[in-house]
Amino acid sequence: MHSAYAEERALLAQARRELNAVDKGQRQTETEAAGQVKAEREKHEQRVGRLEREVAHLKDPGRGMELGRLGGLVLYEHAVTASLEGRLLPLNGLRARFDRGDRVHSLYLTKPDGGGDRAKFPHSPDPAADPETSVRLFDEEEVRDFEMKINEAAAEEKVFRAGLAEQLGEKKEELAEARKDTARLKAAEQNQADVRDRNRTCPRRKEALAQLTAARNQWQDVTGRRPPR
User: Fold this and answer.
1) How far is CA 16 from CA 1, 4, 29, 209, 215, in A?
2) What DSSP designation does 85 have?
3) What single DSSP character describes residue 117?
4) Tens of pLDDT along 176-210?
5) Which residues pair with 69 in a beta bridge?
6) Beta strand 95-99 with 89-90: parallel, antiparallel or unpaired?
7) N or C terminus: fewer CB in 10 A for the chain?
8) Are 69 and 86 in contact (CB under 8 A)?
9) What is the CB neighbour count within 10 angstroms for residue 96?
10) What number of other Cβ atoms are within 10 A of residue 24's Cβ?
11) Which of helix, strand or coil describes residue 70?
12) In 14-136, where do the E strands start and end?
């Protein structure tokens, strides 16, 4: 029986191979087009997301990254605190001043309105303290160095704040432009639509489908059974 339908079987197999090849090629082109759309969408979203974060940072810079610490005094890009649990003092307009003491040196942190805080740095052991108690001692030079570091950071913060409104305005404009700049994404989406349209109306696929239909009809004519596609 196998040899009796050899010609019909060969025609059916050939027609199936041809249609499968066309379908495989179409799937590949559609996958590539979809991948291009995904890549362009991710690029656009990443650019917009980055600019949104930059705008948010300029609107509220927060304390910023840590620049250094001495004892309980912690200096950040935009603020300083006299202790790990203390309140943050904005650097803009702040002034640090060293004060030498008999047993404890101090750094006074003064805000423009006169308020502020004080950080203490013992440089001599407390005679009344338990001898077994170990206390970190600070020499005058390192405290003065940190005073200078705070005042330098405060000067940089003043410059930053002076240009903040202009930076924010420019960054907002850049963000608005980025949101509107969807030309590459739209081109990729249009290409994807074009690929789908070409595949849907592909003459080669229509021809391959017609050949398979004819082969199936011929098989049914000679065997009385309709073969699967």
Assistant:
1) 21, 20, 20, 9, 9
2) T
3) E
4) 999 999 999 999 999 999 999 999 999 999 999 99
5) 74
6) unpaired
7) N
8) no
9) 25
10) 10
11) strand
12) 66-70, 73-76, 79-81, 89-90, 95-99, 104-110, 116-122
